[in-house]
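Morning, I've got a small favour to ask if you have a moment. I owe you a coffee for this, so here goes:
>
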Amino acid sequence: MKISLLIIFLLFSSLVQSDEAELNVVTEDWPPFIVKGKKVSGIVTHNIREILSYTDIKYSIDIYPWARSFHLATSKSDVLIYSIYKTKQRESKFHWFCPIYQSTPIHAYKLASNDINIDSLEALKTSVVGIMRGDNSHNYFLQKGFQEGVNLDISSNEEANIKKLIKGRVDVVIQSQESLNYRLELLGAKALMLISGLEISKDESAEHCMALSLDTNTETIKKIRKGFKLWQRTQL
């Protein structure tokens, strides 16, 4: 009887495992490019689903704070992360697929009522910049000599940064125009007057990419590379 139960358990376990996703896709809430919901959506998410439709890979998409998504993609196997900018610091950490969406410049923004200068790094050092933990802009400012708790105020997500801007707890937020407009509307602050300044990482590519963790299964890498090439042909 015990042997029969053991066999049933093993068969059930194998069936459960076979239904598990082969690929863990991770991202952040970055509307309108990536939109959190019962089913993750957004302009770039649509492209990700199209690319993966050219493969037979089972996958799940999960939204986390960016720092956690990045940690998962750099510490575990078979993880796909998007949207991610390809920088010199990140280049050796992933298998890259670029672009999956057009360039999206990132700028510094302030309230129009605030008379501080935000047109240069040196000027920004005299203000408090709201930044998201672990993202490209966070690393960029640290490299430029900014300090957490001095001229950098760290949050886990961009919505928190914008709320801090509205309440006057930070002087500057770092955003794309598209995402800023989307979030302001969600917060009922669409009429708020903001002014843009310095473009962040201007010398680096601002194309949206997806990237696979280095220890991803070789067969999975081949399938995604093939699916990506097939998808690219439809974009011409």
Observations:
- The mean pLDDT is 91.
- The longest strand covers residues 94-101.
